[in-house]
Design brief:
Distance between the termini: 100 Å
Largest sheet: 4 strands, mixed
Strand content: 5-15%
Number of strands: 16
CATH topology of one domain: Arc Repressor Mutant, subunit A
Helix content: 40-55%
Oligomer: single chain
CATH class of one domain: Mainly Alpha
CATH architecture of one domain: Orthogonal Bundle
Bound molecules: glutamic acid
């Protein structure tokens, strides 16, 4: 077989050679040790939390080593492409501080190694495929799906490994004339690798995360170009990462099983592979067991979820760092104020086995992160989020930013600061009682306080209320009110002689707390009143008193 002629027959329009591309995309001029990494999302419209995890690892690796991080859009499957998805990926990643040095950007492409959309690189793939055909390392295969199914059935019946290899790869042996005839008849075909039949059965490779791996040598005639002329992931990955001079491919564990194919392709093309780093999969605890965080079952697997719930990007970033490198938390404990960018992230400290995604832990991390954000900034974040996600409360919050700021700042400057705030929708629920429009009586009156006492206590409170009281004077008044109504002024007195009292001062404050906030638990009441202001405080107490009185008369 004259492979040169076969290559010319299949790719008559390709006049470029791999050497021309090698010259056009020369080795990068970077300092020793600088890493070139990339993110290669498919624009399906869905960005998985795992994508962000991998994005961080790539971004940190490149930037901490003084290298380059680029974005390549892997859009070879137009059936899966959602309109505007590339832009959505960019803006989703941008809000987490993931910045690319080159590649696809919101305003066109940047960089000398493009195009960075695979759909625009067809000629490059064809050029490299042509070379493989010319060297006898790839060939056209016209087998139909039905023929492939029949072949598989035959192999299974004979208990053989299914797939196209060795003697089963019937079209390896087609003559040039036979190929010409089929091409002229417009029969659809794919280009397949001609796998080595004499290959040793295993090879070893150093994975940047997993260490030495021993894997089976690829024996399959895998598809390089599909019937529409577009490359498979395998072929695009190998040619692109070579020509874009990627030094480290940090990608999800799901690609590990195709690593033998990629190594075989680098070998066939006579090129050196990059360093591979296969990250572990994000898992979720389910009862006693763990399972993969699923796009279908788990809303929290999607980045859109964190946006919708109003997580601060810093919090998500901080949490991901805790699962990216296990010593991050220790570092953070010693460097409270430092920018996360100063942490010495490394791929070899990344986990090799399933990483547990823990929503409770994310919320804890988030509470710590929000505590470090000044209330004014937090107020701006919350109002922007509420407006952008169409929350009905948006206008209300924006109406008085200073008020919101004070609300968000409650208890945050105490010696032991409160950590109540975790994410947008939770914060809105937490602070809703500060707004008359959102106020609801959520908790019932305390069970140990007789119903008839409620309006009496509230009436007494209202009568003596002085908005100018400091915290001590205010609490003294509550003590007096408790005593006047048969409640111990101090909990310890009640404990000593419970028979003497109906309850203690804590029960009285709970009644006032429920009247003011609708809840049994809240931050410091005196501070809440100072923020609500005198008029709103008085009207809340009066309204609750009326409601409680109404209940009594209805009984
Ligand atoms: N397009 C692939 C994906 O979305 C990229 C994998 C890689 O990083 O090589 O999963």
């Amino acid at each position: 077989m004259d492979y040169e002629k076969l290559a010319e027959l299949l790719f008559p329009e390709i006049s470029e050679t791999p050497e021309m591309y090698e010259a056009r995309y020369p080795a990068r001029d970077l300092p020793q040790g600088a890493r070139v990494t990339r993110l290669g999302p498919s624009p399906t419209g869905f960005v998985h939390l795992g994508n962000l995890y991998v994005a961080f690892a790539n971004e940190r690796s490149a930037h901490l080593s003084g290298g380059v991080f680029f974005l390549r859009i892997e859009d070879t499957d137009s059936k899966r492409e959602a309109p505007g998805a590339a832009e959505a990926i960019l803006s989703a990643l941008d809000c987490y501080g993931i910045r690319f040095d080159e590649g696809v950007t919101a305003s066109g492409e940047r960089g000398a190694y493009g195009p960075y959309r695979q759909s625009l690189r067809r000629n490059i793939y064809h050029c490299f495929a042509k070379r493989l055909v010319a060297q006898g390392r790839a060939y056209p295969c016209f087998l139909t799906d039905a023929e492939l199914d029949a072949l598989r059935a035959e192999q299974e019946a004979a208990k053989l490994t299914p797939g196209l290899y060795g003697v089963w790869a019937a079209h390896r042996a087609l003559s040039l004339d036979a190929v010409r005839e089929r091409v002229l008849a417009c029969e659809p075909y794919v280009i397949r690798l001609r796998a080595r039949d004499d290959a040793a059965s295993f090879f070893t490779i150093e994975d940047g995360i997993r260490g030495t791996l021993t894997l089976p040598v690829n024996a399959m005639d895998v598809v390089l170009l599909k019937t529409d002329g577009m490359p498979t992931y395998h072929f695009a990955h190998v040619t692109d990462d070579h020509l874009m001079r990627t030094t480290h491919v940090i990608r999800g564990e799901e690609w590990l099983s195709s690593l033998p194919i990629h190594i075989a392709l680098f070998e066939a093309l006579g090129l050196a592979p990059p360093v591979y780093c296969h990250t572990a999969v994000l898992m979720k605890a389910e009862g006693e067991t763990k399972r993969k965080l699923s796009k279908r079952k788990d809303p929290e697997s999607s980045l859109a979820y964190y946006r919708a719930e109003g997580y601060h990007p810093f919090a998500v970033r901080e949490y991901l760092l805790t699962i990216l490198n296990s010593d991050f938390e220790e570092w953070r404990a010693e460097h409270r104020e430092a920018d996360a960018e100063d942490f010495a992230f490394t791929t070899d400290k990344m986990s090799r086995s399933g990483i547990l995604f823990d929503a409770a832990k994310l919320n804890d991390v988030s509470k710590d992160v929000l505590l470090g954000i000044p209330a004014g900034e937090l107020a701006a974040f919350l109002t922007d989020w509420a407006a952008q996600t169409g929350r009905p409360e948006a206008a209300l919050l924006k109406g008085d930013m200073r008020y919101l700021e004070r609300v968000l700042d409650i208890g945050r400057h105490d010696a032991n600061p409160r950590k109540d705030l975790a994410y947008g929708s939770q914060i809105l629920a937490f602070i809703s009682y500060f707004y008359d429009e959102l106020f609801r009586a959520e908790d019932a009156w305390p069970e140990n306080v007789p119903r008839a006492d409620v309006p009496r206590l509230l009436g007494g409170y209202l009568k003596d209320y002085d908005h100018g009281d400091d915290r001590t004077a205010w609490f003294e008044r509550i003590r007096a009110l408790a005593e006047a109504n048969g409640y111990a002024a101090k909990p310890k007195d009640f404990k000593k002689n419970p028979a003497l009292y109906k309850g203690h001062v804590g029960d009285v404050s709970t009644v006032i707390r429920i009247a003011l906030t609708g809840r049994k638990n809240s931050p410091d009441l005196w501070e809440i009143q100072q923020i609500l202001g005198e008029a709103r405080t008085r009207s809340r107490i009066a309204a609750s008193m009326g409601a409680a009185g109404g209940e009594i008369s209805a009984e």
